[in-house]
Structures are given as C-alpha cells and as structure tokens.
UniProtKB/TrEMBL annotation:
Subcellular location field: Golgi apparatus membrane
Protein name per its UniProtKB record: Hexosyltransferase
GO cellular component terms given for this protein: Golgi membrane
Main localization, broad class: Golgi
Organism: Setaria viridis (Green bristlegrass)
Protein topology in the membrane: Single-pass type II membrane protein
Domain of life: Eukaryota
Length: 533
C-alpha cells in the first residue's frame, strides 16, 4: 500500500488523502470520551491536537483535490483539442491532395475554373499551415501539464508525512486502489498526447491504406478483437500475441478505440514490428450503426438521469463509500466496453473471432482455439465458479421476477477477457437482440448494477461453452497467490482487478509478465518516463 501513498498516479492522491482524513476526524472523537478525572484533561488536549491536525490536513487535501481535478480536466481538454486538430488537418490534407490531382490535369492560366481551383488550393494550404501552427501551440501549452506539479508535491508531502494516516491507508487499501485504477496515470496520458502529436506531424505516414487490406475480411485467417482506450495496454496485447504466434502472417488484429485516442493508437501499432500480421485501427464512432436509436446503452447514456448518476463528482459523498464509488465509474457504461455485444455486425464477413481485453498478455500460439468444437455454442469462455462463489445469484437481482423466471441462481459464472466467439451461431441465436432486450429492461438498474459481465452472463446463458482453464488464467490484478505453475502454463494471463501492471500499484511478482512486451526502446515510451523494470 505504501506504493499508493508514495507514487501512484498523481490524480489518485487527493481523493485518497481526503478519505483518510475523514477517517482521522471521525477516529479522533472517541478519544475525548475515554478515561476519568486527571486523565480526562490530557486526553482532551490530545484529542484537540489530533482534531486540529486533521482539520489542517483536510483543508490541504481539499485544495489538493481541487488542483488535481483541474489538472485532470486540463489534460482531457488538451487531448480533445489535439484530436480535433488532427481531424481537421486530415480533412484539409485530403482536400489539398484532391486539388493537387486536379491541378496536374489542367492549366490555370487558360482555364478560369482551374484558376479558381488553384486559388482554393492556396486557401487550403494556408488553412493547413494555420492548423499546424495551432497544433504546435497546443502541444507547447500542454508541456506544463507534464512537468512535476511543485505545489501539489508540497501539499502531498505535508499530508503523507503523517504516519498515522499512512497506517490507515493500509486499511483503506481496496478503496485507494480503486481510485488509482480509475484515474489515468500521467505517463500514459503523456504517451497518448505525444503519439497524437506525431500523428498530426506526419499524417501521410500513418494514413490507413485505401482500400483496406483484404486480410481484414478473410475468414480463413485468425481474427482478434481488442477494444481499448489505453494505447500502451492495447499495444502489449498485440505484441504478445504476435511474439507467441507460430505464423504471424495468419493473424489479424482489429483494434477499436475512441475518437480521442485514434491517432495515438494508429501510431503505436504502426510503429511495432508485426512480423507480417495484419491490423486495422478504428474509432467506435466510425461504426455508424452504433447510434442511440439502435444501441440501448447509448440511449441510456444520453438520458440525463443517468448522466447525473455516473458523472456527478461529489467528492464529499464519494469518499464515504467505496462500493458507491464503483457505480459512479463511467467505465462501467462506456460504449467501448459494450462494443463486445456487436461483434457480428462489426465484422459481417467473419465466422469466428477471439475477443481479448486490454489487460491480458498472450503467452502461447492461440490457433488451437479455432480447432475447438463449439457444439453450436456462441461464447467459448473459462468458468470461474467454485463452491458457492461466482454463481449467477451474485451478479444479478434474483428478487426480480424476470431474472427469477429465466435463470438458475446457481449457474456457473464465466469470465470476460479471452472469449472465443462463433459469430455464425451468434447470428443464428440472435444474441444481440437478447442483449438489447435485457439492457432495455435494466434501464432503471434493478436487474443488475454495473459492468458488462452481468449482461454477458444473461445474453450467453445457454450458449456458453466452457474452455479448459489453462487457456485463460485470471486474477493477476488482485490475487497475489496464483501459482506460478498455473501462470506458466497459461495461454493467456489476465490482470483483472485494480492492480494493473501499468500502475505503480501493480503487483511486482506478476508485472514482468507484462513489461516484457513493452517496447522500452521506443522513443515515445522513453520520453514519457516509462523505465524498464
Ligand atoms: C475543426 O473544424 C471544426 C469544424 O470546421 C471547428 O468547429 C473546430 O473548431 C476545428 N478545430 C480546431 C481545433 O481548429
Ligand atoms: C476543380 O476541382 C474539382 C474538385 O475539387 C474537380 O472536380 C474539377 O475537375 C476541377 N476543375 C478543374 C478545371 O480543374
Ligand atoms: C442508426 O443505426 C441504424 C441501424 O443500426 C441505421 O439503420 C440508421 O441509419 C442509423 N442512424 C444514423 C443517424 O446513422
Ligand atoms: C451528500 O449526501 C447528503 C445526504 O445524502 C446530501 O444531503 C449532501 O447534499 C451531499 N453532498 C454533496 C456535496 O452532494
Ligand atoms: C423499471 O423499468 C422497467 C422497464 O423499463 C419498468 O417496467 C419499471 O416500471 C421500472 N421500475 C421503476 C421502479 O421505475
Ligand atoms: C430487485 O428487484 C426488485 C423487484 O423488481 C426490486 O424491488 C429491487 O429494488 C431490486 N433490487 C435492487 C438492488 O435493485
């Protein structure tokens, strides 16, 4: 836990500190009521002292929280600005090249239309220059955001110097690590910004091939779906899969991210040595069928009520209750997370696809999955139940008549993270419609509270095929006692849990399994202070 207090993602600290302080304040009170006669005065003084310290620290923490929130918002705004510039620049460049093509086949001096074109092309030139200037300024502006925040550092020191509070930090471990996992660490943000800047500076180098490679739709190849807004994590999934495949040229990676991270994701994947493997990088916003008239989650996201539920940022109340905090995490409702329910429509030409989370590492050639007889089932997954744990009743509301009528409370849960989907069976069983039905029923969150696992368990209730456990070993983000033997034999290991290997709170004994697929020689990764372990 010392790692959290000492060096976790910067934006994580204030909230943690605040939580600790609230505890400190409430813990101080009983001291005053203890003891009798002579002891009372001493106790009261001590209690006063503690209360004073706590209230000073609480004020510092509130200031720190506010500063940190501002910092976080600033960074998000910058990334949005850069990505908008990127989009505009790409459009301008496309127009420019069209104009250039037209110009080569005509003579501006004898042809007035061509002259008009030439002048509009000059206009475009100017526009492009303006955009590039704006991009440079934006990048320069964002520099201070990546430099150490001296003020915050000082406040932090004042707060964390108190051993008393550190001891309490240990007790609040789960809460603290949830916050740390939720916030974007500075190096990761830096990486996204630098890569986006590179994408802007050299658009021609990273342009997607037109037309797209035939391999993307070739059902005879091995296809992977990776949906992520974490460029480093996604790149490690692809690198590990390529590194361990027997014939990379037979593998195709479909990486989907959001608009904001598209440029960065294109650059990081393009810069990798894929050894002949094929790939595409897209933004989910580019799939036009994913609109709120079709997708219940988008409709629900747009509903004002839910927006409030997920995005209101009331630190005061949030710090009181870790589980409540979890419900507020927008991650649980982001479209990127729900894309997994649209695989057949996203890849209409494919028969089968392997879905990988961005917090996995591939350790073996996976083509054996394509040889498994799926018995007409849709979802190949490892089961996670043991004893009474990880059974359906833990994931959904069995007091609800709809749930009670349809599912067995003791049905065995399975894991997302490495799922082999038979898309033909999916289309035949109309699983997307099922998912829509249930997601609509859950509009007011009475069937399940959060995440994609409950709707997954519901959607693929009778269409899941259990896979051998060695395909997918889970828990490297929370369970320190997984056997090394089990990990060595795993085709895919999964850092599910809050202690992600890219965070300072990642578990040391497992981290190397992930870091060995980080390209520490890459200049952008180095520039953003990722150091080899
Ligand atoms: C990009 O273009 C849009 C539409 O023309 C405009 O609203 C936006 O301000 C531009 N973004 C930047 C950063 O110039
Ligand atoms: C002017 O540009 C347009 C496209 O921008 C092109 O279709 C047209 O042929 C051009 N005209 C001439 C005379 O070059
Ligand atoms: C929304 O998606 C549906 C199909 O999923 C499509 O028919 C419709 O045209 C889309 N609407 C827009 C505005 O793109
Ligand atoms: C925190 O919760 C209490 C009770 O639910 C409410 O009265 C108060 O206004 C909340 N505080 C904030 C800042 O939302
Ligand atoms: C919850 O939503 C369902 C389906 O939309 C609706 O039938 C039900 O009345 C709602 N319940 C409450 C308490 O709002
Ligand atoms: C479970 O469902 C019942 C019946 O619809 C509802 O009254 C209850 O509030 C639900 N529980 C939760 C935690 O949403």
């Amino acid at each position: 836990m010392a790692a959290v207090a000492g060096s976790a993602g910067r934006s994580a600290r204030p909230v943690v500190a605040l939580a600790l302080l609230l505890l400190a304040v409430s813990a101080a009170a009983p001291v005053a009521t203890a003891g009798a006669s002579a002891a009372v005065n001493g106790d009261r003084l001590r209690a006063e002292q503690i209360r004073k310290q706590a209230s000073d620290a609480a004020a510092s923490a509130a200031a720190l929280a506010a500063a940190s929130r501002r910092l976080h918002l600033d960074r998000a705004r910058h990334l949005r600005l850069l990505s908008s510039l990127h989009r505009n620049l790409t459009n301008t460049l496309r127009a420019l090249s069209l104009a250039a093509d037209a110009a080569t086949v005509s003579d501006p001096f004898s042809d007035p239309a061509a002259a008009a074109n030439a002048s509009s092309s000059r206009q475009l030139d100017l526009q492009a220059k303006d955009l590039i200037r704006a991009a440079r300024a934006a990048i320069a502006d964002s520099k201070p955001l990546f430099d150490p925040q001296l003020k915050i550092q000082r406040l932090k020191d004042a707060i964390f110097a108190q051993n008393e509070l550190l001891a309490r930090a240990k007790k609040r471990g789960a809460f603290a690590s949830l916050i740390a996992a939720k916030s974007i660490p500075k190096p990761l943000h830096c990486l996204a910004v630098r890569l986006t800047a590179e994408r802007i500076a050299r658009p021609e180098q990273y342009a997607e091939p037109v037309p797209p490679p035939r391999a993307l739709e070739d059902p005879a190849l091995f296809h992977y779906a990776i949906f992520s807004d974490n460029v480093l994590a996604a790149s490690c999934v692809v690198r590990s899969a390529v590194a361990n495949s027997i014939d990379p040229s037979k593998h195709v990676f479909h990486v989907v991210t959001d608009r904001m991270n598209l440029g960065a994701m294109q650059v990081i994947i393009r810069r990798m040595d894929l050894k002949g493997a094929h790939y595409e990088v897209k933004a989910f916003e580019d799939y036009k069928f994913l609109n709120s008239s079709y997708v219940p989650v988008l409709r629900q996201l747009e509903s004002a009520n839910l927006q409030k539920f997920y995005f209101e940022n009331k630190l005061e109340n949030a710090t009181k209750d870790a589980s409540n905090m979890k419900f507020r995490n927008p991650k649980y409702l982001s479209m990127l997370n729900h894309l997994r329910f649209y695989l057949p429509e996203m890849y209409p030409k494919l028969h089968r696809i392997l879905f990988l989370d961005d917090d996995v590492v591939v350790q073996r050639d996976l083509t054996g999955l394509w040889k498994i007889d799926m018995d007409g089932k849709v979802n190949g997954a490892v089961e996670t139940c043991f004893g009474s744990f990880h059974r359906y009743w833990q994931y959904m509301n069995f007091s609800h008549p709809l749930i009670k009528a349809k599912f067995s409370p003791n049905a065995c849960g399975w894991a997302y993270g490495m799922n082999f989907f038979d898309l033909d069976s999916w289309r035949r069983e109309k699983c997307t419609e099922q998912y829509h039905y249930w997601q609509n029923q859950n509009e007011n969150r009475t069937l399940w509270k959060l995440g994609t696992l409950p709707p997954g368990l519901i959607t693929f209730y009778s269409t899941t095929k259990p896979l051998d456990k060695s395909w997918h070993v889970l828990g490297l983000g929370y369970n320190p006692s997984i056997s090394m033997e089990e990990i060595r034999n795993a085709a895919v290991v999964h850092f599910n849990g809050n202690m992600k290997p890219w965070l300072d709170i990642g578990m040391n004994q497992f981290r190397h399994l992930w870091t060995k697929y980080v390209d520490y020689d890459d200049e952008y990764i180095r520039q953003c202070n990722f150091a080899p372990p």
